[in-house]
Specification:
This protein is mostly helical. Helix content is 74%, strand content 6%. It has helices spanning 25-34, 65-80, 85-94, 99-113, 118-123, 131-143, 146-203, 209-244, 246-258, 262-283, 288-297, 302-316, 322-328, 333-345, 348-405; strands spanning 2-9, 15-22, 38-44. Helix 6 (131-143) packs antiparallel against helix 7 (146-203), helix 7 (146-203) packs parallel to helix 15 (348-405) and helix 10 (262-283) runs antiparallel to helix 11. The N and C termini lie far apart (99 Å).
Length: 406
């Protein structure tokens, strides 16, 4: 069979292209028409340089969250339209620009063709499809509502991606300002201050105390800057090594939750992630015990993870979810009360999603408040530090000008 490259317009009106194996051009056109494509253009591979020339891949070598969302939404639409599973995978693989993701989808299609379920085929590629994704797909296959489940999955991933972006956004601004401050202060101490120091030495006379301090600080930096940089690298490596241990991760994650400003934000993010993930899984038909295990593994914080495992253990002993959640001390009283109401009314998934929506808004407000608070503090820090260095170096000049004027 030959390979044919094709270009066509989908039912939604978007322009798509891909490569398909078939006996003739007519077979490719007929198959694309069955998929609902129009404006079809087909060309056999191997004409001119097309067969031999392989363009290098500049992809990241991993599946991005956005690509996963697009794939999930398109797949849900195709399944809902009645297209067979294998054909959906074939189309989506052919139009995938990320080579890594394309190879994964081709392998998933081959596994399904060999007799594996869709969930089993996805489970072979954990770097692209995590446990949550696989379990929800499995529940959708069993319940015959794969299109609905995929729609929920896409919505969940989008909201999780938005939450992650919010937290990253809160960290980027202060990190950028601090990095600029360190660079500016370093340049002043290493390159600017020595010039002033040489000039003052030529003038002679006693220097003001602030100027002496800044010159001494500059000399220290020039002498030990390599040692300080190496020390920072070593400290960073030691921190990562310590955090990689079970005890170290627990200590640091616990301190993170108790941090004055960021602790509240981390707690809100954890609650939003826990309730959103568990709510999505329960509403999709995943057993609560399996759901809690997956939620615990994807929590991102050891303290929260242990609290969820305690909840899971308590449920296996016949207790409700609300009781161990309250005992953990990790989750706010309002969350515990709302989950308790959800259990009593049999609307646990709805209640969990409501809590998640509420805490998504709380994270929005916390990020905005944090940014508003950090802006003036960082500006004051930067202005005071750089301004202090400049003033200290100009004090002798002011003193000399006063003496000359007198």
């Amino acid at each position: 069979m030959a390979k044919f490259s094709w270009e066509a317009r989908s039912k939604a009106g978007s322009f798509q292209k891909g490569v398909m194996e078939a006996a003739t051009v007519s077979n490719v056109e007929a198959q694309l028409k069955r998929y609902g494509f129009t404006g079809i253009s087909v060309k056999e591979e191997g004409k001119g340089l097309r067969k031999e020339l392989k363009l290098p891949s500049f992809g990241s070598g991993k599946v991005e969250t956005k690509e996963l969302v697009v794939f999930t939404r398109q797949f849900a639409t195709m399944i809902d339209s009645g297209l067979p599973l294998v054909q959906c995978l074939d189309i989506l693989a052919s139009q995938q620009e990320n080579k890594t993701f394309k190879d994964i989808l081709v392998k998933v299609k081959e596994s399904v063709e060999s007799g594996s379920t869709f969930a089993e085929a996805l489970a072979k590629h954990p770097k692209a499809f995590d446990q949550l994704y696989v379990n929800l797909v499995a529940a959708g296959e069993v319940g015959g509502i794969l299109d609905t489940i995929l729609g929920r999955l896409a919505a969940y991933i989008e909201k999780a991606m938005k939450l992650k972006k919010q937290v990253k956004g809160a960290m980027v601004y202060p990190s950028t300002i601090m990095a600029i401050a360190v660079i500016v202060i370093g340049v002043i101490l290493v390159f600017v201050i020595p010039t002033f120091a040489k000039m003052f030495a030529d003038f002679g006379g006693d220097l003001p105390a602030p100027t002496k301090f800044v010159i001494a600080l500059s000399n220290f930096f020039k002498k030990y800057i390599i040692v300080m940089i190496l020390g920072l690298f070593m400290l960073s490596a030691a921190f990562r090594k310590y955090y990689a241990t079970k005890k170290g991760r627990k200590v640091i994650d616990s301190l993170a939750l108790k941090a004055p400003v960021f602790g509240s934000l981390i707690r809100k993010v954890s609650v939003a992630k826990f309730t959103r993930t568990l709510g999505t899984m329960i509403s999709s038909g995943v057993p609560i015990m399996d759901g809690l295990e997956i939620v615990a593994k994807t929590s991102g914080n050891v303290v929260v993870e242990e609290a969820i495992y305690k909840v899971r253990s308590a449920i296996s002993e016949g207790k409700t979810i609300a009781e161990p959640l309250q005992e953990s001390g990790v989750f706010p009283p309002m969350v515990v009360q709302m989950i308790s109401v959800g259990e009593a009314t049999g609307a646990m998934d709805t209640m969990l999603n409501k809590i998640a929506d509420f805490y998504d808004d709380e994270v929005d407000d916390a990020v905005a408040a944090l940014t508003s608070m950090m802006e003036p503090l960082l500006m004051v820090f930067l202005g005071t530090t750089v301004g202090g260095l400049v003033i200290a170096m100009y004090l002798p000049i002011f003193k000399l000008a006063g003496a000359v004027g007198g």
